[in-house]
Structure formats: structure tokens, C-alpha cells
Amino acid sequence: MASRPPLAQAETVVLRLHQPVPDEALPAALSSASVLLETTLSHLQLVRDEDLGPLTPDQLRFLAVAEQHAIPLGQVVEDLQLVALSRGGSLEPEWDAVELADLARSAVGELAGAAATRGKPIELRVEGQCRTVGDSRLLGRLLSGLLSVALDEGAPRLPIVLSVEGDGLEIEYPGESLPDTTRLGLVVADALSSALGGRLVAAVSEGTVTLRFDPPVEAAHAAA
Questions:
Q1: What is the model's pTM?
Q2: End position of a domain, from candidates 71, 87, 103
């Protein structure tokens, strides 16, 4: 992949939300909500497994809908907890060597169903070795957050392009304006980028929106 020229200042926005640090009780409250959701899903699974008796087709359909709503809600709670911990300075990444291409493949696979349903295919382009030092779980959530924004904002039937190169991750999708920085995917990505010492940049130019994450240069060099 050819290196991109520096983006002009007028068309670049560094995503920094500058929100006040949440109350320190918020992570604990979100953790409690997560436990409640997990318990609810466990109870639904007990019913689905018919441990309490046989189910009718209508009851099975009801359980499927309940699970479809509960699982994404659980992810929202987890994301909010990560944001609260990051802003409060309590998030502790588990540092290790990470291959960004592997994370990208996993994220594309995770969202393939949603992308197909919305008619917005995700194309993955990998250029060479893309290693850095970071927390693979947090980097995965950061990338999933950015892709979810692209799926929400991108035009139907036009591809979303995820590029992985030696110095970072970049998502491009058709659009005329930058996404709202209050979108949960961007809030999560911004918080995790800060926790990992990286840089998150959004730009729009000639009908294309670009969301880019650059890990710390020293981390990328350490993993090379």
C-alpha cells in the first residue's frame, strides 16, 4: 500500500471527547448490570435446553428474539465499562506482541453477518508485517467499534475497506461528513486509543470518510 500523504489540517479532526471523568461508582454499577445480563442469558439457555420441559415452536421463537436483544445489550454494558475504567485511569492493558492483521480478520469475521444483512460488504486489505505491542482484547474492541460506525454510516451496496499496514489500521467508507463523536463505537475507540497510547483520527475528503488508528510508534518498533 502506498503511503498516504499527510492530511490537510482543514480536513482532519482528532477525536478527543474531553468528557469529565465518570463517577468512580460507575464501573461497579456497570459490572453489576453485566452480571445480571449474564444471569438472564443463563436462565434463557436453561429454558432453551428444555431442562424444564418441552417447548413449542412459538416459545422457541420468543427465546431466540430475547437472546438476540440481550446479547448486544451485554456488549453495550461491557463497552461502557471499558470507557468508564479508561477515563478513570483504572484500565490496565495486558501488554503483549500483537499482529494487527489477525485482529482485523477476526473483527471482519465477527461482523460479516451484520455486514451482509445491511448490504455493506467489508473488504480487508493487508500490507506486509503489521505488528505492535498492545492488548489484543482492547485493540479488538477498538477496531470493532470503528467498524460498527462504518456499518451505521456507510452507504448501502458500497464496500467498507479495512486496510492494515505497518503503521496502523484504517477504515474507509463512502460519506460526506464525519460521524457524530457521541456514537458509542467512537466513544469506545477513543477511550481505548488513549489507554493504549495511540492516536485516533477521522477525516473526510471527496466523498470518503476515513477512520484511522495509529499505535504508538515506539510500540510498533518494539514488536518489529
A1: 0.72
A2: 87
